[in-house]
Amino acid sequence: MCMMGGLKFFLGLQIKQEKDGIYIHQTKYVKQLLRKYNLRDCKIMSTPMHPTFILSLDESNKKIYQTTYRGMIGFLLYLTASRPNIMFSVYLCACFQFDPRESHLITIKHNFRYLKGTTNLDVCYKKSYQYKLKGYNDDNFVGDRIERKITSERCHFIGVNLVSWSSKRQDYIQKGILDLKFINTKNQLADIFTKPFLQDKLIHIRNLFDMTFIKK
Predict the structure, then answer these.
(1) Residue 149 near residue 168 (C-beta atoms within 8 A)
(2) Does the pLDDT of residue 149 top 60, yes or no?
(3) Angle CA 13–163–140, to nearest 5
(4) Is 188 within the bounds of a domain?
(5) What are phi and psi of 117, to 5 degrees?
(6) CB atoms within 10 A of CB 66
(7) Domain of life of the organism in this record (predicted)?
């Protein structure tokens, strides 16, 4: 066993250790992908996918070669290890692997065009003495227009550093009956902050909650 210096490369991840923290990126991997799919001279895009474009089954469009499409998805999924910003767009394209069409291929290539302009982006793990765990979740209830399943995106931080991220669609939709119940909202505390009242009504609600006005 011998010491070869600081860690610089691990399973496709390029690692740069600086005084202020550790930087992880896959610049070399991105350039290899662009060369593999002949996209080195492609036009650069500013986002992973067009913000107004909606993917669907698109049976009217021409079918494409499944193996090529799935290969692109697989390469991009591996890239999400250091590029959480492409997680959603890659996941969305992966949902159509069973019957990919030309419109899906265009969206995948949009990802590559975005990567060409952002090859040097990395994940940074700053030196910090904060160890508080924080998590964020964002649910998209209307994005899936085919199966109507919710897409959940999650990320977790330890201190200021991002340590995990994911984008997943729920496995199934539970069918049931919507049960509506009447709830009396008269004289609730929230009404004081959300509704305009005449003075008599305001004083009445104030007294119910044992509140008083403090005069300066």
Answers:
(1) no
(2) yes
(3) 110
(4) no
(5) -85, -5
(6) 12
(7) Eukaryota
Residue 186 in domain: no
Q: Which of 63, 58, 117, 56 is nearest to 86 (CA)?
A: 117
Domain carrying residue 59: 21-169
The tokens for 20 are: 């202020």
Which of 67, 69, 89, 66 has the alpha carbon at shortest distance from 79?
A: 89
Per-residue model confidence as pLDDT tens digits over 26-79:
888 888 888 998 888 888 888 887 777 777 777 677 887 888 888 989 888 888
Residue 51 lies in a domain: yes
Joined together, the tokens standing for residue 25 give 């990126």
Map tokens 């070399």 to a residue. 28
Q: Would you state the pLDDT for residue 7?
A: 78
Residue with tokens 């305009």: 196
